[in-house]
Design a protein that fits this description.
Helix content of chain A: 55-70%
Order of helices and strands of chain A: HHHHHHHHHHHHHHHHEEHHH
Strand content of chain A: under 5%
Number of helices of chain A: 19
Distance between the termini of chain A: 37 Å
Strand order of the largest sheet of chain A: 1-2
Number of strands of chain B: 12
CATH topology of the domain at 276-363 in chain B: Immunoglobulin-like
Mean pLDDT of chain B: 85
Strand content of chain B: 15-25%
CATH superfamily of the domain at 276-363 in chain B: Cupredoxins -  blue copper proteins
Oligomer: heterodimer
Radius of gyration of chain B: 26 Å
Mean pLDDT of chain A: 92
Chain lengths: 647, 367
């Protein structure tokens, strides 16, 4: 499909000399030290994605050990203490260190390109967020290799996670690292929102934003509302554990259920924080491969917003067996089932789009097809577990393990892989191999269903979650063996995918700017994009700028010799002002290190908190030290005038 | 009836872990009296209708299966499941059918019109799901009411307290305390009052009812009724620590008369030892660490920390359903409980061979 003729974006000729100036202004420093000074959104996006994939592999390996242990009854591959750490780490890794960061990474890479901006609003904050993520991930895995990883499950219920029943450092690591990584999530959310609201190309009013950008906007707002409760409750847990605060101690008028309420008030939206950007990815892929705009743009965008709101009113469906009065749980049954409506609207909008279009079947669409298949099944079991009496039978069993993997792997991982196949040429300039992509898809699709479908039945047969062993006489053996075989097929699919990535980075077919003939702005610049994203930032006149017969004019008047971006108005994206964004700096890394002195040091002694605070203060001062460019004084007037002369 | 469980094979001395068999769930079901009475017609019809789900059908039997209900609550819930399964299967097939059609369609003529698309989304994405969900919410709330405590006035009460990793079971009206084996009279509504001594556990007997959490500082309730005599299995369903997997219980539903006899026997204090061996065994019990945690009513041993052992020999399993109750596994459990259930709270006991034999003689006499 490469080379298909789509109208090129408007590109008033830019002299080679001016391009060289732009290149120098926007390029990131070279060398090892330089690597730590990058602030560009594409660098950070790629780092997020690659790091998250590393955690995905680690979490997957943990899952394989779990599956091996459960493959046969009364197995003794790992001891029960290790098993506790394994399933806790698997959950923590996949939720906090893979799924959310990878979605943020894709968003950080793509959003500025999709809205025609040269960088994000706060590039240094971006880098800071990435280092916080990296450090907390390394901290968590360091504890795993020391054998003191968190071991009370990823949702870490008290009182099991309290000091009395978990006296070791394991739970302190949970509280510290989870709180710490949420700093990274919040940072990414804030800058995504500001970037989307204030840096869209002129003409890209809110109702012309690509659906993926809508999904990122919804995700970011959800992060801002969901993560603080988690941080608050984990700090409450830390206080219970360190200074005897008794928030969760029933003997002192505390309540263990308080933990569950606050945790799931975060934890349920968390699932949709992962799902919604995936829905946005699906919309992008469907439009491109159906060769027409997504049917019902407004309905799809509003559905995502609706899911975002509704997801904050469902948390109690994780607590149907805690003895909450019937009237209350009935409300949450209705609310939980309601989620099926906006989800169904989107699925049918995609089907209608494909039905109306000229379908071109390529690997991204193949993954989307797999997504619909698995996600619909997971959605149906989701409606089932929203029923209180039914949930009392399957809650905390392998039925729920099956359900959540159908929703999360089907709902997020398949679209993500579709998205990686789709945008890989934009990131690297080369296409992934279609043949390997098909192998990867079919191995994963079959492996996934063979792994998780039997778990529904295991749940009915009475197999609870989080058991490290089971008796041979419960007849759970063959289904578990089947699931384990499936897990290895799934893993083989992931391996083929990773091999495809490694191979195609060097040897893939050269893609060109717009190999799929897609409609959104990121395909209007070269692949991979230059350091400045767009030689001439675009303006837009419709939702599908690259499908327009008459290209819109480009933006002129931004200076090339410093990092200037155009700020536009929130609703209609009319040009507002120019803004200089900061360039490469080591200070985000230093700040992240200083903050981690406080967080990681807390595991050792509370005295590290003031030390870390002082270091952070110093780092922030360095970060914000005034520079000539910020004061509106050109650093090098001579350079500027030479550019103007060249014009 | 109790033979399979009390088959104390002599000769097993301090058996190594490898020799420890697990609870025989198949033995559990052997004692079920008579053919299982069949569930309601709806249940039967929907089971037949679901013959496509071969995988799921084989999920219907087993001592711990939610789809092999032995009481009214579990039956209602299983019925709810089969109806939701039927609806879900239809919805799934329709959506996937539309998707595949949309993907495979090639000719211009079958392209969906704008009005057709609008109809597809409003009918398929909004109207039909809304109708199904309204029916389901109503039905689900009705089933929820039908199985609730409010709608099922109990005829007797059992208190169950979750411990890491075993169940304390009390019959307050009779003054009986036992552990890990719940006896119920057939056909009577029994209120289970659920509490916890340490962390959160969850009480789950799939054949009778859904699960209910045991939360420190609270008492939750569940009313169960067994419709027929039989032996089922229950298991802790909320992760409660290292040995969460080995926290199960035996549930014995027995005819009224048999239950009354059992309860009367449990009410008795422990029988006095009659042979010299057993008397020596009791001395060993009282002079070793056993007495710090266990109670044997009728003796000086009265600590509430561990399971009550007054009628230990009458139970089918040891260590919360982890191993069968016979002489060999009892010996192994006493000598080295940590190798059978690492992380449980019982410390190893340092006894000489003769002391152990005497202790076993004594414990096996506690019927």
């Amino acid at each position: 499909m490469s080379g298909q003729a789509t109208p090129a974006p408007p590109a008033p000729a830019l002299s080679p000399k001016e391009k060289a100036v732009l290149e120098r202004t926007w390029s990131s420093p070279k060398g090892l030290l330089g690597w730590f000074m990058h602030v560009n959104h594409r660098s950070m996006g790629k780092r997020y994605i690659v790091t998250a994939l590393v955690f995905f592999v680690l979490g997957g390996l943990e899952a394989l050990v779990i599956r091996l242990q459960l493959a046969s009854p009364e197995a003794a591959l790992v001891d029960p203490e290790t098993y506790r750490q394994l399933f806790t780490m698997h959950g923590l890794t996949m939720m906090f260190f893979f799924a959310v960061p990878v979605m943020e990474g894709v968003a950080i890479y793509l959003v500025p390109l999709m809205i025609g901006a040269r960088d994000m609003a706060f590039p240094r904050l971006n880098a800071f967020g990435y280092y916080v993520y990296l450090i907390s991930g390394i901290g968590l895995y360091a504890s795993f290799f020391l054998g003191i990883a968190p071991d009370a499950g990823w949702f870490n219920y008290v009182p099991l996670a309290g000091k009395e029943f978990s006296p070791g450092p394991n739970i302190d690591i949970w509280a510290t690292m989870v709180t710490f990584i949420e700093v990274a999530a919040l940072v990414a959310a804030v800058e995504l929102i500001v970037t989307i609201f204030k840096q869209r190309a002129p003409g890209m009013s809110l109702d012309r934003m690509p659906l993926f950008v809508w999904s990122v906007l919804v995700m970011s707002f959800m992060i801002i509302f969901a993560m603080p409760p988690l941080m608050v409750t984990s700090i409450m847990l830390a206080m219970d554990r360190t200074v005897g605060a008794h928030f969760f101690n029933p003997a002192e008028w505390g309540d263990p259920l308080l933990w569950q309420h606050v945790f799931w008030f975060f934890g349920h939206p968390e699932v949709y924080i992962i799902l919604i950007p995936a829905l946005g990815m699906v919309s992008s892929i469907v439009a491109t491969f159906a060769r027409r705009p997504v049917f019902g743009y407004g309905a799809v965008a509003l559905s995502m917003v609706a899911i975002g709101f509704l997801s904050f009113g469902l948390w109690v469906h994780h607590m149907f067996t805690t003895g909450i009065p019937e009237l209350g749980t009935s409300f949450f049954t209705a609310a939980s089932m309601m989620i099926a409506i906006p989800s169904g609207v989107q699925v049918f909008c995609w089907i209608a789009t494909l039905w109306q279009g000229k379908v071109v079947m390529r690997s991204p669409l193949l993954f989307v097809t797999g997504f619909v298949f698995i996600f619909v099944l997971g959605g149906i079991t989701g409606v089932m577990v929203a029923s209180v009496p039914f949930d009392t039978q399957v809650h905390d069993t392998h039925f729920v393990v099956a359900h959540l993997h159908y929703v999360l792997i089907g709902g997020a991982v398949f679209p993500l892989l579709g998205a990686i196949h789709y945008w890989f040429p934009k990131l690297t300039g080369r296409l992934l191999s279609e043949r390997l992509a098909k192998w990867a898809f079919w191995l994963m699709f079959v492996g996934f269903n063979v792994t998780f479908f039997p778990m529904h039945q295991l749940g009915f047969l009475g197999m609870p979650r989080r058991v490290h062993t089971y008796s041979a006489d419960l007849d759970w053996g063959w289904l578990n063996l089947l699931a384990t075989v499936g897990a290895f097929v799934l893993a083989a699919g992931v391996a083929v995918f990773l091999w495809n990535v490694v191979r195609s980075v060097r040897r893939g077919e050269v893609a060109g700017p717009n190999p799929w003939g897609a409609d959104t702005l990121e395909w209007g610049t070269s692949s991979p994009p230059p350091a400045y994203n767009f030689a001439v930032p675009p303006t837009v006149a419709s939702r599908h700028p690259l499908w327009e017969a008459v290209p819109s004019p480009g933006v002129t008047g931004l200076r090339s010799d410093r990092r200037e971006v155009l700020v536009t108005r929130l609703l209609d994206a009319e040009p507002d002002c120019r803004q200089v964004v900061p360039g490469p700096s080591i200070t985000p890394l230093l700040t992240a290190l200083a903050v981690s002195v406080a967080f990681v040091g807390l595991l050792h002694s509370t005295w590290w908190v003031p030390v870390g605070a002082l270091l952070t203060f110093g780092a922030i001062v360095a970060w914000n030290w005034p520079r000539a460019e910020h004061l509106g004084l050109g650093e090098d007037e001579g350079e500027t005038s030479s550019v103007e002369a060249a014009r | 009836m109790r033979e399979p469980w009390l088959d104390g094979r002599p000769g097993a001395r301090c058996a190594s872990v490898a020799l420890i068999p697990s609870t025989r769930a198949s033995d559990l079901t052997e004692t079920r009296s008579g053919p299982a009475d069949r569930p309601s017609p709806v249940l039967r019809a929907s089971r037949a209708g679901a013959a496509v789900g071969i995988l799921l059908l084989s999920g219907c039997s087993g001592a711990q299966s939610a789809l092999d209900p032995r009481g009214p609550a579990a039956s209602r819930i299983a019925e709810l499941w089969w109806i939701m399964f039927g609806l879900g299967a239809v919805v799934f097939l329709v959506v996937i059918g539309f998707l595949l059609h949309a993907l495979r369609r090639r000719d211009e003529a079958s392209r969906l019109s704008e009005a057709g698309a609008r109809r597809l989304v409003t009918v398929g994405g909004v109207a039909i799901p809304l109708a199904i969900l309204l029916v389901l919410v109503t039905y689900s709330v009705r089933v929820g009411g039908a199985v609730s405590v409010a709608r099922n006035p109990p005829e007797m009460t059992v208190e169950i307290v979750g411990h890491q990793f075993w169940w304390e079971i009390r019959y307050p009206e009779a003054g009986v305390v036992t552990a890990n084996e719940l006896h119920l009279p057939v056909g009577r509504r029994v209120l289970l009052k659920l509490a916890s001594a340490d962390v959160i556990h969850s009480m789950w007997i799939p054949a009778l009812h859904g699960k209910m959490d045991m939360i420190p500082g609270r008492t939750n309730s569940l009313v169960v009724r067994a419709d027929e005599a039989g032996v089922f299995r229950g298991q802790c369903a909320e992760f409660c620590g290292t040995q969460h997997a080995l926290m199960s219980m035996v549930v014995v539903a027995q005819p009224e008369v048999e239950f009354a006899e059992w309860l009367a026997r449990q009410r008795e204090p422990a029988p006095e030892p009659v042979t010299p061996e057993r008397m020596r065994g009791r001395e060993v019990f009282h002079s070793s660490a056993c007495v710090y945690c266990h109670t044997v009513r009728g003796t000086n041993a009265s600590s509430p920390l561990g399971p009550d052992l007054t009628h230990l020999a009458g139970r089918r399993t040891l260590a919360a359903g982890s191993i069968p109750n016979n002489r060999g596994s009892l010996a192994a459990w006493i000598v080295d409980p940590q190798s059978i259930k690492p992380g449980n709270k019982m410390p190893p006991t340092d006894l000489t061979g003769p002391e152990l034999q005497a202790l076993l003689d004594y414990l096996e006499s506690l019927r």
